[in-house]
# Entry
Amino acid sequence: MKAVHIKQFGGTEELYIGESPEPVAGDGELLIQVKAAGLNRADILQRSGKYPAVPGESDILGLEIAGVVIGVGSGVTGWREGERICALLPGGGYAERVAIPAGMAMRLPAGLSYAEGAAIPEAFLTAYLNLVQLGGIQEKDYVLIHAGASGVGTAAIQLAREYGARVLVTAGSEEKLLYCQELGADSGWNYRQGSFVPWLMETTHGHGSDLVLDLVGASYFADHLASAAVGGRIILVGMTGGSKVPMDKFDLNPLLMKRISIIGSTLRSRSREDKIRLTQHFWRSMGPKFADGSIYPVIDRIFPWSHVRDAHEMMEANANKGKIILDITADAE
# Structure
């Protein structure tokens, strides 16, 4: 079969489509004919040599796909060939076929395309894990979501809205902020205009943020402590703003006085068993909402997978609103 490979760690010029061994559905697995794959920041980091594949899993890029079941491994019940699915993967999504744990497959609602299906797993499972399971989101919480127009951000806005939270977002342009408000955000701040703290404190009438989905990291550490509500929860899921906090910004006093919790979280490195539990819990509660259109995946652009380099460049430029998708059905050059 064909798959996207990396010649050596580096820029987008290192990506190419070549031959790869055919996967086989093992015990408890499904073999999937991939129709579409979603891009994620982890793909960029892995291509650059900064985020290696999970030991024992495929080193082919791609953490989420949509496609058709073409093989059912031993011990699998409840699935048959021809069913449409979307799924989170340990790796291997930029390929024509992939074997996945059956418990990580979600039936794709009839009204959603394969591209839309591929835009669901990583973004929505990340948002659900961190806002709901780890963050304990509550009705009327002030929830601050950074990178609101990203794939995870657009998913998080919708989930927070479903839970009755008051959603605050940051993004890098007025166009992106307006789009976030169309999705359900109550207010937004353009981070290019400076610190978000005065805006957040004014918007929350001095209350602060009850829950933060932090994709930025070190550069926002002090501001998060300054603007957190009493009992606030900060869920760190990304570090686009660096990992090392300068010592003059590292003040433990707000943590103590405001009883702030900081939780570090990654999805990729979790065990298969954890991912299966998360997937099934998420799909039981949220699957019907995709079916009736209450929530939906946001796609900015679909690239034929022969243009995988262009897709990576678009993500690196932060030019997207929502997900970037690879069409695996297009002919590979």
In short: Residues 272-292 form the longest helix (21 residues). The first strand starts at residue 2 and ends at 6. The two ends are 14 Å apart (CA to CA).
